[in-house]
Amino acid sequence: MPVPVPRQRAIPAVECGQAPAASPDSGPSKEQDPPGTHQAENAATRRENTRENPTEKREKPTDTSTETSTGTSAGTSTSAGTDRAPTPGVRAESAAPTNLTVLLIEDDPAGSPIVPDLLDQSGKPIRVRTARNLTEAGRLLTDDVHCILLDLALSAPAPARTNTDGGGSGNGGDAEGDDELAVLRHVLELAPRHAVLALTSSSDAERGAEAVAVGAQDYLFRDELDGRLLSRAIRYAVERKRSDSAERRLAEGRLRAQENRRLERGLLPTPLLAGSPLRFAARYRPGRSRALLGGDFYDVVRTPDGTVHAMIGDVCGHGPDEAALGVELRIAWRALTLAGLCGDELLGTLQQVLEHERSDDEIFATLCAVDISPDGRRAGLCLAGHPSPLLSRPGTPARLLPYDNNGPALGLLPGARWPRMQVELGAEWSLMLYTDGLIEGHVGGGRERLGQDGMVELVRRQRAEGLTGEELLRATVNEVRELNGGELADDLAVVLLDRTA
Description:
This protein is of the alpha+beta class. Helix content is about 30%, strand content about 20%. The radius of gyration is 38 Å and the shape is elongated.
């Protein structure tokens, strides 16, 4: 819904500083006033007429919506000739740019004013706009309005909801049946971001309390108002509304963060290894702050023939889009593996998925896929631009598997091929798959990186200390972080598969 634009009010010369203030004792001098000061002169004339005829009935305005700056002399800030009663002892030169703007909604703003002169905390006058029904209020409710003063005795019916074809009526319909607070409910719906003060009579405090329960920031007794009390109440209502809005946004943010964490946890894989003698362990650490999911992904499944398939991959980048793409590739890999695909055929299909799902043609993903035979002694290895796994066996130092036939990363070359290499594992072994986040951390305070050779030496030393499984992964990741001098900038994923004799 477009924001309504308030009617431009004519600013008298006295208010805008182009003419000297009118004195209560003498009218303005035409010789000293620049052109355009006739409005101030007319205001002074009306003020004198009011003093001479205090019982004279004031003329009804032609436009029922008005805007005044309280604390100024009568007639210096009306938009359509509507004046408030003159304020004794208050001179026109006290008018100044206001800090707060208030929208007053009452039945007859041209009658006896229920709002006294208002000053903000710095002593500047508070601007008051007036409207006698919700249609006018909707037109005057602009972004610069800080607070709404609503007279609960407003007799005008609540406006009907506007139809999509534009046939809604501005004043049609009853105020939601017999609901005494229907007008307030409409105001709260019309202005959900504005502070609202309800005005009621001192004999109807219960109605005021109900207004607060419905959503108003506070209620005041109409017949007990004074400028100081009302000014303080407006400032309090504005600050309370800001506090409530900030608290609501904070609660929404916390709820959204909790939902995101639950979603990210649900997107992390659950290995399908039922019936396999292999032991599984994994470590996952996203590079994004306060995130649970990054661009790295992994999965392990066992097919009905007893073959164990393991995969680990890395989407370039660290944002949520890369994390989402990694989840899509992991799910696609699991579905294709359970459907019986492997090797070059599986990676070619994954590349098609990546090409269709990525947000940019320059995004690619590296991947390492291993299929371990049912007897656990042999494995097939396919590399798509990814670091080669680390194999450890009793009595021999840990070493990297061959990577001479490493194919290109997924998404780089259309029609690429990824050869499958056969690897002998032996009767007892430990196979570690990892992403480059484990090897690209720095060593000490310099620019030197750990690299694959440093990682191999690190794992060899920890294996010599008797660490295996979860303990080995925990010690490896912790030492890599310590060598880096803190958290790693890149996503990190490590998968460890063990087979004992």
